[in-house]
From TrEMBL:
One of its GO terms (cellular component) is plasma membrane. Keywords: Cell membrane, Glycoprotein, GPI-anchor, Lipoprotein, Membrane, Signal. Pfam families: BIM1-like_dom. It comes from Pseudoneurospora amorphoporcata. It comes from the Eukaryota. The keyword Nucleus does not apply. Residues 1-16 form the signal peptide. It is found in: Cell membrane. Residues 16-161 form the Copper acquisition factor BIM1-like domain. This is Copper acquisition factor BIM1-like domain-containing protein. It is a lipid-anchor; GPI-anchor.
Amino acid sequence: MRSLSLLLSLTTLTTAHFTINYPPSLEGSSIDESKEPNAPCGAIVPSLSSTDSKFTVTDFHVDGDFISLHSGHPQYNWLFRASVQEVTEGNWTQLYPIVQQSGLGDLCSQKVTAPKGWVGKKGVVGVVGGSGDGTLFQCSVVNFVQGTNSNKPSSCTNSTGVTADYTSDAELSQLVGEHVEAPVETPAPSAAPSGTSGDKSAGVVVRGGGLMALGAAVVAGVMIL
């Protein structure tokens, strides 16, 4: 009985974690789940000055690109952030309104934007997942390029039963820095995650680690996946 209890507890721990499907995670398919609680990137903290070729570097289009995730927990709040500096816990810019995913499986957010001034720079896209079991971190190394990514990756899917909403999360909002390159706006319907709706009037701006609603609530509507 004791062995069965231990196995069940380990299974619960494993399935509570998440992976980045796209852009490719620094750890690839060999994620050290025990280190996902380690800020800012889990098991690996990338150096942008490194020429290490073992990491996959993907182009990320500043006018709109994809972030695809797989969740092993029934609910997560997602913070998408990025940096073109050596990453520390004060060096991040928020890219997208915070999203709450309900349901196990895949979620793909589309039209995630980055500051236009980053074009031509190497950077890190970080995903932070907040749940009742704590806060977890994963990162991808990217090259910021101009334009919109019109080639939807095969990993950009939404699992059956997964739903999502734009939401606010004070704890996650603290994980972006004082310096903000550009405002974060709630996407219009065509820019929201696949098959979703959004209210562009409910844009948010990150200032000093917090969120400021621009004439509307931060919660911007339900995403119907």
